[in-house]
Amino acid sequence: MIGVLLLVFAAEARPAPPVVVTVAEPDEVRIVAGGRAEARLVVTIKEGFRIQANPASEPYLVPARLELEDRDRVRVGAPEYPAGQPYRLRGASSDLSVYKGTFVIRVPLEAALSAATDTPPSGELVLDGTLRYQACNDVMCLRPSSVPVRLPIRIEPPRER
Question: Which CATH architecture does the domain made up of 17-156 adopt?
Answer without folding.
Answer: Sandwich (2.60)
